[in-house]
Amino acid sequence: MIRFEQTFTNFLLHHQEKHNRSYHFLILMDALISSAKHIEHYYLTGALKGNLGLAGNVNVQGEDVLRMDQIAHEIAIHYLRVSGRVVHAISEESEKIIPINTESGRYFVYFDPLDGSSNVAHGLPVGFLFGIAKRNLEGPEDGHLRAGKDYIAAGMFVIPTGTFTLALKDAGTWRFHIDETMEFLKPTRMVLPEDSKDWELSFNVANRYTYAERVQDWIEQNQRKYAFRYLGALAGDFHRILSNGGMFMYPAIVNHPDPKKNRAQGKLRLMYEAAVVAFMCQEAGGTAVDETGTPILDIQPKEPHQRTALYVGSKPMVNDIARVLLG
Ligand code: FDP
């Protein structure tokens, strides 16, 4: 007997129909899925074709640009453009906001097409993360940058593993798997497990002594209770937390022996990293805060590439560290 699973398209069509929504969002999602499949193709053959190395230039944030970063950015912008549904996009790979269809576009898309650069040379998992907000359809639209609480959806592809996770506002977080025909299938609702037996803690241990003392103390008191996992690519690490529960954190760096290497504002980008996983986490029953204990989804971005510290995962654990952070 052949076993058939529901396709992503079928799932989304039913979702839109049930909530009396337009088809525009489907066209946008089709563009993101086409982008992810295309990026995945380049990534899988990257080592063979020499695409996993440096592009030879440095971006505005002072980081070496990888050839795959450029390819992934170009692919995503192409599909977003032809969708006709995007007002403007913010990409990790472009300093400026990218105007796309400023007249009749309907959505704002904030994305990082290839997140987790230290894994690229090895062909190991990276993420394509995105958040989506909607333009004001009732009145004038000033195009201001949206906080995570104003996203209507957020998701991530873990490339090249063939997994895709999408959170829809007030409708849950869903995981899909790619099949041999490159179709995403089998919607599975993700809910963070309440039972702490499988909870994990995920952070870069090498940074541990550069964190604020109160964070170091919290780690000291809690580390023995949990398994420890760190892949070095937010999408992959957060993928595990969504399944097993626990917490991923990238705290502010305030005690580095070389003060120039401190990152008091945190490392991760608010609009296309932290708010994306915070949105997925909230829809799965979890929560996320920054270094001051403020909910990530409440932070109003002031600029496209704003950074933040991030603590994201199971509510009891994130609330516990938030209490410490709030002092
Ligand atoms: P990367 O810098 O390697 O692109 O901001 C992105 C990110 O990866 C995340 O995906 C990842 O969780 C984190 O930074 C890894 O940083 P460290 O190498 O400092 O641990």
Can you lay out the helices and strands and say which pair or pack?
Blueprint: H1 8-18, H2 24-44, H3 46-49, E1 54-58, E2 64-66, H4 67-83, E3 86-91, E4 98-99, E5 107-115, E6 126-134, E7 151-159, E8 163-168, E9 173-178, E10 184-190, E11 200-202, H5 213-222, E12 227-228, H6 234-244, E13 246-250, E14 268-269, H7 270-283, E15 287-289, E16 307-308, E17 310-313, H8 315-326
Parallel strand pairs: 3-5, 11-12, 11-13
Antiparallel strand pairs: 1-2, 3-4, 5-6, 6-7, 7-8, 8-9, 9-10, 13-17, 14-16, 15-17
Helix pairs in contact: 2-4
This protein binds 2,6-di-O-phosphono-beta-D-fructofuranose.
2,6-di-O-phosphono-beta-D-fructofuranose is lined by residues 115-118, 204, 232-234, 237, 267-268, 273.
Summarize the structure.
With 327 residues, the chain is of the alpha+beta class. The chain is built from eight helices and 17 strands. 2,6-di-O-phosphono-beta-D-fructofuranose binds at residues 115-118, 204, 232-234, 237, 267-268, 273.
What would you say this structure looks like, in words?
- The longest helix is centred in the N-terminal third of the chain and has 21 residues, at 24-44.
- The protein is 31% helix and 25% strand.
- The chain has 8 helices and 17 strands.
- 44% of the residues are buried.
- Strands 4-3-5-6-7-8-9-10 form an 8-stranded mixed sheet, with helices on both faces.
- The chain is globular.
- By secondary structure, it is α+β, with helices and mostly antiparallel strands.
- The model has no long low-confidence stretch (mean pLDDT 95).
- The protein starts with 7 loop residues before the first helix and ends with a helix.
- The chain has helices at 8-18, 24-44, 46-49, 67-83, 213-222, 234-244, 270-283, 315-326; strands at residues 54-58, 64-66, 86-91, 98-99, 107-115, 126-134, 151-159, 163-168, 173-178, 184-190, 200-202, 227-228, 246-250, 268-269, 287-289, 307-308, 310-313.
- It binds 2,6-di-O-phosphono-beta-D-fructofuranose (FDP).
- 2,6-di-O-phosphono-beta-D-fructofuranose is lined by residues 115-118, 204, 232-234, 237, 267-268, 273.
